[in-house]
Design brief:
The longest helix has about 35 residues. The protein is an all-alpha fold. It is globular, with a radius of gyration of 20 Å. The two termini are about 25 Å apart. The strands form two sheets. A two-stranded parallel ribbon has the order 1-2. Strands 3-4 form a two-stranded parallel sheet.
Length: about 290
């Protein structure tokens, strides 16, 4: 068995074997379901609006910096580092830099996979609740229309949007890849920030504070280039931090994979990775 496979298998056993992992997963599913059940009862009569349905299914709460599932993934990432400090089962992580980075990469892979599974689980549970708990006065056809096989090939930002269906512009299927990416990013940020400050609690709190710093900076960068946030940002991120007030008539809504959007969102992630690498160069342990 190669060292990479051994490290990944060790991380899977560690993450699966501690009680805190299952507590976080159960809390995320239950809180998401409770939020979706409450949100369903507040939908106005008529056709079900896509932004409201997306916020209910993604667990977006106005007073939280990230969707509930992304926060749960951040907690799993921080716990993955905390477990390494509490039960250091990888002796190689305390020797050479390459092996320590390999251990960190294994944690990133496992946390990313766990975040995707958690996102899919909560999304399915919330979608079922939203679909079957809707009041009779709300028409769900605009959100829960059955996609055609051709529509499934139209990935947001990579292919032209179909004229109708869930993957059309404004459809429920367009923000889903961004939602999955946001949950994975939350898990990775929790792990990397915990590794940077060597504290699971502080790493999780820094992950919660990151959107408050990232969104205004990225929003001002987009505004400088005459663009607004993509539509999925308003559907998935609870806060807008007043940046909607700086829109001008010359602004245009950016596409999902606009180059300026990619730079605005990936630059802070690259800085975080560089900070973690620099910290590992100065340390003798993970």
């Amino acid at each position: 068995m190669s060292e990479t496979v051994r490290l990944v298998a060790c991380e899977v056993r560690r993450l699966r074997g501690v009680r805190s992992t299952w507590v976080v997963v159960a809390a995320a599913v239950l809180l998401n379901a409770a939020l979706a059940a409450v949100a369903v009862q507040r939908f106005p009569a008529g056709k079900l609006a896509v932004p409201g349905a997306m916020r209910a299914m993604a667990g977006v709460v106005p007073w939280l910096p990230l969707p509930l599932t992304a926060l749960a993934a951040a907690a799993l990432g921080a716990l993955a580092y905390s477990n390494e400090m509490r039960w250091p089962g990888l002796a190689a992580s305390r020797v050479r830099l390459g092996r320590r980075l390999g251990a960190l990469a294994a944690k990133l892979m496992v946390v990313g996979a766990a975040a995707v599974l958690l996102a899919v689980l909560t999304l399915v549970v919330n979608a079922l609740l939203v679909r079957f708990a809707l009041p009779g006065t709300v028409d769900p056809s605009t959100v829960f229309a059955q996609p055609r096989p051709a529509d499934l090939a139209a990935l947001p930002g990579l292919a032209p949007a179909p004229a109708a269906g869930p993957f059309a512009v404004g459809g429920i299927g367009r923000p889903l890849p961004a939602y999955l990416a946001l949950v994975v990013a939350g898990g990775w940020a929790g792990l990397l920030l915990a590794a940077l400050v060597r504290s699971a609690v502080v790493g999780f709190l820094l992950t919660c504070a990151t959107p408050a710093l990232l969104e205004p900076t990225a929003g001002l960068l987009l505004h400088h280039f005459g663009r607004n946030w993509p539509l999925w940002v308003g559907e998935l991120l609870p806060f807008q931090y007043g940046l909607n007030l700086v829109h001008e008539a010359t602004d245009r809504t950016a596409a999902a994979l606009d180059r300026v959007v990619v730079v605005a969102l990936l630059a802070p992630a690259a800085l975080l990775v560089l900070a973690v690498l620099a910290a590992q160069l100065r340390r003798r342990a993970l």
